[in-house]
Specification:
The structure is a single chain. The protein has 471 residues and is mostly beta strands. The chain has two domains: 205 residues, Acid Proteases (Cathepsin D, subunit A, domain 1), CATH 2.40.70; 170 residues, Acid Proteases (Cathepsin D, subunit A, domain 1, Beta Barrel), CATH 2.40.70. It contains six helices and 31 strands. Strands 6-7-14-8-13-12 form a six-stranded mixed beta barrel. Strands 18, 19, 20, 24, 25 and 29 form a six-stranded mixed β-sheet that branches. A four-stranded antiparallel β-sheet has the order 22-23-27-26. β26 and β27 form a beta hairpin. The chain is globular and about 65 Å long. The N terminus and C terminus are likely disordered. One of its GO terms (biological process) is proteolysis. GO terms for molecular function: aspartic-type endopeptidase activity. Belongs to the peptidase A1 family. Keywords: Aspartyl protease, Glycoprotein, Hydrolase, Protease, Signal. This is Peptidase A1 domain-containing protein.
């Protein structure tokens, strides 16, 4: 065990992970109730990737268009070739884009990284550079392979370590994506559908999480020997300093933080609507418990991909009209996809029923989008549109009923144009996207095997920091 305990009487919690994936040591605040970090939408003013030249509807439309690529990537998980491609890269299609970011401090002393927070993948990895000899890692880099943003230098950290090929964590990587280097260290390579790829060595490092401004606590949580990928090369375009995997597999940050500790393998978030200038919160440990009034719980069902959070969709209801889902209708709950994608057998009657009930002039959807139903709201006073849109209720496994308000089913994609945020399933997986999850406290509990939804005013539950502050 490394490090010393400060004067604030930090609580030492031993973390013992199954399958010999890591031996973590967490130092949490004396309250022991977990911690919260800021969950930053990539288009918000708090994001380093905010484009001030775009209008609010234009940002929403771009997010909706990104949904198609995200859904396509999620529908072909871990598709990989039997042999390397012509450029020597093993193909593995995994989700690369996502809509939310989070900050993580890694190393000793810590380096602050702003990374994609992805509920659709497991491996956490960050861009790395090497100022010294790299401790056995190649110091040379292709000039065209330099990633944008912050790069972590492991040669400057006293807590960095490499994992061997025979480690449990290495075996958890997809078979075609990892191998051994000359020193028997575990290497990985991930290739994405757009042609970009990243490679590096599976490593361990200390992660430090500071409670976000406005959260219930003001302490820090430090976890030693977290497994992550130290990426030595990245070729292609990318948003963020890396990816934090929040999926359900053994390599995910959630599993590593929580096994056999007071934190538990659980997290939750509360997403503010796109139109609200406030931050969302991402909670870990006991703080992630969803006990809000109106909370409903549905069981997670087994998935072909451990990372995915799948529940059963049984029905869809609009007013007194109920439509049964096709038999065995699994749906992925994903914060990284904007739109909701459902089977045609549900979307077709939904569009028909909403068209009949909503008394607004219909207009054509924007080109190059997956949007199916749009209305002209230019002549309607602000605040009156929501009253003209009926609730849509999703019937999930275990008897859970999740009610979607107007803000969960429609979004303004152009000035005066309101479109349905539900599209037809064009891929192998249905998805409940982040528009549908706005103003809901959504809790994932891997220990109980459940997912819980509760209506909430997410903007009031987490005060917005100043946009001029650090991200």
């Amino acid at each position: 065990m490394h490090g010393t305990m400060g004067s604030r009487a930090l609580l030492l919690v031993a973390v013992v992970l199954t399958a010999q994936l890591c031996a973590c040591t967490a130092y949490a605040g004396s309250g022991g109730d977990g911690f919260s970090v800021e969950f930053i939408h990539r288009d918000s003013v708090r994001s380093p990737f905010h484009d001030p030249t775009l209008t609010a509807p234009a940002r929403v439309l771009e997010a909706a268009r990104r949904s198609a690529a995200r859904a396509a990537a999620l529908s072909r998980p871990y598709v990989r070739a039997d042999a390397p491609s012509a450029d020597g890269v093993v193909s593995e299609v995994t989700p690369r884009t996502s809509e939310y970011l989070m900050a993580v401090n890694i190393g000793t002393p810590p380096t602050r990284m702003v990374a994609i927070a992805d509920t659709g993948s497991d491996l956490t990895w960050f861009n790395c550079s090497y100022g010294g000899d790299g401790r056995g890692l190649a110091a040379a880099r292709d000039a065209d392979a330099q990633p944008p943003g912050v790069q972590f230098d492991p040669s400057k950290s006293t807590t960095f370590g490499l994992l061997d090929c025979n480690s449990g964590a290495c075996s958890e990587l997809p078979e075609a994506s990892h191998s051994c280097d000359a020193n028997s260290k575990c290497t990985y390579i991930y290739s994405y559908g757009d042609g970009s790829h990243t490679s590096g060595l599976l490593s361990t490092e200390t992660f430090t999480f500071a409670d976000a401004p406005g959260a219930r606590g003001d302490g820090t949580t430090r976890v030693a020997k977290v497994n992550f990928g130290c990426s030595t090369t990245f070729v292609g375009s990318f948003v963020g300093d890396g990816i934090v995997g929040l999926g359900g597999g053994d390599l995910s940050l959630v599993s590593q933080l929580g096994a056999d500790t007071s934190l538990g393998r659980r997290f939750s978030y509360c997403l503010v609507p796109y139109s609200v200038k406030a931050s969302s919160a991402l909670n870990f440990g006991p703080r992630a418990a969803v006990t809000d009034p109106g909370a409903v719980t549905t069981p997670l069902i087994p998935s072909k991909v451990k990372a995915y959070y799948i529940v059963e969709l049984q029905s869809l209801k609009v007013g007194n009209a109920t439509f049964a889902a096709p038999d065995r209708s699994p749906v992925l709950v994903d914060s990284g996809t904007t739109l909701t994608f459902l089977p045609t057998a549900l979307v077709d009657p939904l569009v028909k029923e909403l068209s009949r009930r909503i008394k607004l002039p219909p207009v054509q959807p924007p080109e190059e989008s997956s949007l199916l139903l749009c209305f002209d709201v230019s002549g309607v006073r602000e605040g009156q549109v929501a009253a003209m849109i009926p609730d849509v209720t999703l019937g999930l496994g275990g008897g859970a009923a999740v009610t979607l308000k107007a803000e969960n089913t429609f979004l303004e994609v152009q000035e005066g144009t309101l479109c349905l945020a539900v599209s037809g399933q064009f891929s192998a997986v249905s998805i409940i996207g982040n528009i549908a999850q706005q103003n809901m406290h959504v809790g994932y509990d891997l220990d109980k095997g459940t997912l819980t939804f509760a209506p909430a005013d997410c903007a009031s539950s987490y005060p917005a920091p100043s946009p001029s502050g650090s991200v």
